[in-house]
Structure formats: structure tokens, C-alpha cells
Amino acid sequence: MSAKTRGTPAVPMFRRLMVANRGEVAVRIARACDLLGITPVFATSTADRDAGYLRGRETVCIGAARSPQSYLNMQAIVQAARQSECTALHPGWGFLSENPVFAALCEAHGVTFIGPPARAMHLMGKKTPAKTAMRAAGLALIPGSDGILDSVEQAREVADRVGYPILLKAESGGGGRGMRIARGPDEVASAYADAQAEAIAAFGDGRLYLERLIEGGRHVEIQIMADRYGNVVHLGERDCTVQRNHQKLLEESPSPSLSPDERERTLAAAVRAAASIGYVGAGTMEFLLDQGTLRFMEMNTRLQVEHSVSEVRSGRDLVVEQIRVAAGHPLSFGQADVVLTGHAIECRINAEDPANNFKPAPGKIVRWHSPTGEGVRVDTHVDSGYEVPPHYDSLLCKVITAGATRDEAIGRMIAALGELVCEGVPTTVPLHLQILRSPAFRSNHYDTRAIPGI
Amino acid sequence: MPVKNFVLDARLTPPVLRARLAAGPDGRQRLLAPGVGMFRGAPDPGMLVGPDQAIGALEILGVVHHVLAPVGAGGLVVAPEDAPRTSAPARRAVGFDDLLLVLDPSATRSESAANQSGPAAGPGVSGGAVLRAPTSGRFYVRSGPGKPAFVSVGAVLEPGQTVGLIEVMKTFSRVLYGGDALPSRARVVRICQADESDVAQGDPLLEVEPVDAADDQNTKPHPA
Fold first, then answer.
1. CATH code for A218-442?
2. Per CATH, which fold does A2-114 belong to?
């Protein structure tokens, strides 16, 4: 693999790059641009244009505060890239990052979209084609229907084969909507009707498929990086079991629950699977750990919020690598060069009020202090005086700590969160401390059914 | 019958955008860009501009949009003081809300004085009890598109009743009627915010008047 990456001719690099995102994401992309000597140009809404993280930066205001008029406004963003002479665009995560139409629009106007090819994005965006492709590549799946269900009778037949309880899911679903559980044959008909109605209302697509419901599993995902010459590497796995309402709170790597054999097998299969669909760029495959077996759920065709956990363990800058790959460079490292050391944990700190049922809490941050210290990394766009706008999601910062062992990483995280100061808006720091200090989390006795320590 | 080979030609139906209006210093009006694009064809200083009049063209991804002056705009074009305009480019890149034109309405005031009414009643409050937004966010008067509004003018409210929704960071919460300064039973006099408008904490949402016992009799079936 390393022979392929040596001695290749120099490939030009972008000079100006449009950052089509906001907040912590935009700051992260700009840091990679600064490292590569690229000038980042920020697409910004009217709500963000005076924010501290844009001070001294080149910006183009693309629309009003509401996301559909700004960060989701495809024409405005591509036009902004064109007129500010950017030849590349990084969508970050969220907003338009997994939209194949947006990727195609960028390419049509001569702006390189930093992400996978539109066809790979489209394939992985639909649930059953993605599962079929992944099964062919040798990944274990959750037992269920082969594709779309035709009728309630078929659903009942499949359910009898795979065993109850079962989960009916919408083909175009996401965010926990269009899903219903049936715990016995008599519940299938009503669950089918409810899931279908919700899916039509939410996504305009009533097609359903069926999976056995796995209760008490662990949520594990694998970070993939690929170039356009067929080189694919993994950067290990992350355990994201600690979630609240399908929103990840805390991620760690390596997963403390995964056996070495299963890790080895699935990492190799995930690399093969990414290669088989011609994947390019950064991507993540999500799995459910079910009694020792990793079963494929879905693939995210973008970088993720928690990519920093893998960066800390591998010492590789994934955003720099994404930009290099998009510019036509081969991967700068092979699988043998990826050395994963120690243990890393990330906590997502949101502007939410734990005392008031996690109600989002926009407002002015009067005083802010980021923690520092050995093995501590903080990704944030927030500073003293920053006004948290009410229009977007509530992520304020990510704190990532590393240690030789899980206990050392946890200890550093508790110290770091104690050092973090945020006056003016409530944050989820107390919740994180409660989780980190709980015996269930420390002894690794928890699963997707409940947040440890709560 | 479907029309065969029908092509929507932008030359026949040119897309139209309306510039945004903002008040500038010393009573001047500032017309701002309605979107991102390449702007050209602005009227020269000294020309008269009125509502709905074309003030240039904005090219967005190769499509030329006509830009019109918004309702309420009017005046003589003046050169913005912060731009020397020695050699103006044929077209220039503008972002959303960037300055396109500065108008001086005072030049036309004498002739249009007859048309001018007093300042329009804004979303201010004319006395009476007011229910205010408990938090900043987007205010919805109905639970979903096509659904009936939670309250309408003339409705009688009781504490705990839902009058709308506020969305903050993708999370919806109900706005309930109630509070120390508000009457326990009240009739809605005015709904101060349009559906899906952005509100700040403390902005007025509803104007209400107390419902006294006598009024109450009218809304209930008469006792025998």
C-alpha cells in the first residue's frame, strides 16, 4: 500500500475553499485549511456573521438566519463559492453534507465537493440497497426482510422466521421516525399501519422493511478513509452507546465491549465493503453490537462530529486528509501506518438545561473558559461574549481527552469538565459528570436501553 | 392535454427578486441585496426610484433575476458615502444583505406628502394585558401546516391553555396562557405575531382583555 503512495507526482492543491457550515464545524474545517495554506471563505447566515469565530476571516453572507434560507440554500452557497473564487467546498457534517443533489450542483458549477461521489452517497442514503451492498461485502446484518415488504402478511411471515420482537422501519426514515415495535404476531398489523402512516407523513414514502429488534445492544461505528485510487483504510472503531433521544452524548475508542476477534473481522470487512462500492473520502459504518457480533445498521457518507476521537487515537488529521483526497492526492498513509494508541473519550457539551428536561437554552455566554492540560483537546467556536443563536443546534463544544488506559482518559475528562467555565447559559456538563462518575459507566455495564448513571 | 415540448423560458418569465429595505442614517433608505450573486445595472445617482421599479439584475448561478425596489421604497439615488465609485465595475459580487443602493426620500417628500400617512402601527402594544414570549425562538400559531390555529381573536383563554408553540434549536415547546399580571379569564384582542415569526424573549404574543362575570353570562347558555 505504501508503495502506491510513494513517488507520485505533485498534485495541485486548492487555493480557496468555501466552508459551507457554521460554528464548531466551520472552525474545524478552517483549521485544516490553515494547515494546508488554503484560504477558507465562510458561507454565513445573518445570525452568525458577527460571531467571534469569523473575526478576521473572509465571509459571504448567504441568507437570513433560518437554515432553509442560508445553510440549506444550495443555489446561494454554490453562487457564493463561485463569486468568491473558491474551487472547493467542504460541507462539514449536518446541513447539506449528505445531499447528493447538492454534491452534483457543486460539480456542475466547477466546485469540488469534498465528500464521496454522489452515486455512493445516493446508494448509502437508501436503507435496503445499502444493506444489500454491505451483505455482499461480507458484513453481518440484523436478521430481517430482504428489502421492502409488500404487505402485512409478508411482514408476519418474515417476523415468524426471524423471531419476535421485531422493528418495522421506513425505507426513507431517519431520526427515529417511521419506526414501530411489534412484540407478537397480533401486534404486527397495527404496527405496520402506524409506521406506514408516520413514514408517509414525515418522508412522503410509505415503504417499510423489517428487522429483529435488538434490545440491550451497544452502538459501535467504524471510521473509514478512502482515496480515488482504491486505497481504503480504517481508523478503528468508536463506541457511541451513551445517547439521549437518539442524540449521542459521549463517544469513546476503543469500544470496551468488543472482543479482539470480532474487532479484527469487522474492521477488515468494513474496509472491503467500502472498497466494493467505490467509496472516496471519509465515511462511517454504524453497527449494533449484539451478543458479541457487530451487525451493520447504516453508513454515514460524511465526516462525523465524533471523528476527533479517532484523530486523537491515530494522530491523523482527517479533515486535512479529506481535502488532500478531494484534490486528487492518494492517501498519505496506508493501513500499516495507522497505529491506534491508548484510549480516547469525547463529551459533547450542549447549551441545554439539565434541570429543565434538557430544554435548549440560547443566550449570551458572559464568560467562557476552555479546559487545557495533558491529553485534552477542545473543539469549539465559543468564547466569552458569544451569543448562542436560537436557530441552530445546541452544540457548544467538544471536549476530547486521551490516556494510556480508559480509566486515565475518564479521569482526565472529569478534571477537564471541572475546569470548563460557561456563565450565561446552562450546559450539559453536570449530566456528563454524572455519567463519568457512575459505577455502571466505569465498570462498562450499560447498553442502549439506558444512560449509565441516570 | 399536456402541452408538448413546453419549455419554461426565463426570457419570457424572468425571475424577480425584491430588494430588502433598511433605514439608514439621516432618514435615508438602504436597499439591500435579496441574495448572493453578481449584481449589475444599478441606476446612477440622481435618478428617481419608486416601489416595484427595477433597480438592477442579480445573476445567481447563471440565471439573471430582476431586482425590484420593495414596497415603501422611494427617493433619489445618492452615492453611498463609504464608496468612492471612481471606476465602478460592470458587475460586482454581493452577499445577502449587502448594500445595493442608497435612496434619499426627502427629495421626493414634498410631492408625495399627500400620500404620506402617519407611522404605521408596528407590533407595539396599545395597553391592556399582554402575554409575552417566555423564550426567544420561532413562534407558531398552529400545531402544523393546515391545522387550525390554537387561538383566534375573540377566543376566551383560561390558565394552562395552549396558545402557540415556540421552536428553539429544533425543539418545540408549548406556550401556555397564564401569569401573575394576566387575568384568570381573558378574551384575545389581538394576536401580535404572525405564524412562524422569530420572537425574542419578552416580545408580545397576545393582547388580551379580562372577561368579567357579566360578559361571561353571554358566552354560556342562559340559566333558566
1. 3.30.470.20
2. Rossmann fold (3.40.50)
Of A252, A249, A265, A292, whose CA–CA distance to A405 is shortest?
A252
How does pLDDT run along chain A (454 residues), one tens digit per residue? 444 445 445 668 999 999 999 999 999 999 999 999 999 999 999 999 999 999 999 999 999 999 999 999 999 999 999 999 999 999 999 899 989 999 999 999 999 999 999 889 988 888 888 888 899 988 999 999 888 899 999 999 999 999 999 999 888 776 667 888 999 999 999 999 999 888 888 778 889 999 999 888 999 999 999 999 999 999 999 999 999 888 899 999 999 999 999 999 999 999 999 999 999 999 999 999 998 899 999 899 999 999 999 999 999 999 999 999 999 999 999 999 999 999 999 999 999 998 888 999 999 999 999 999 999 999 999 999 999 999 998 999 999 999 999 999 999 999 999 999 999 999 999 999 999 999 999 999 999 888 998 8
Domain boundaries, chain A: 2-114, 143-212, 218-442
Domain extent at residue B186: 129-219
Active site residue A412: no
Q: Which CATH superfamily is domain A143-212 in?
A: ATP-grasp fold, A domain (3.30.1490.20)
Confirm if A189 and A143 have CB atoms less than 8 A apart.
no
Q: How do A39-45 and A58-63 pair as beta strands?
A: parallel
Cβ neighbours of B34 in A, within 8 Å: none
Amino acid A57 reads R
Which residue in B has a C-alpha nearest to residue A78's C-alpha? Answer: B61
* A440 grid coordinates: 455502571
Predicted complex: ipTM over 0.85? no
Enumerate the residues of chain B whose CB falls inside 8 A of the CB of residue A201. Answer: none
A209 neighbors A147 (Cβ within 8 angstroms): yes
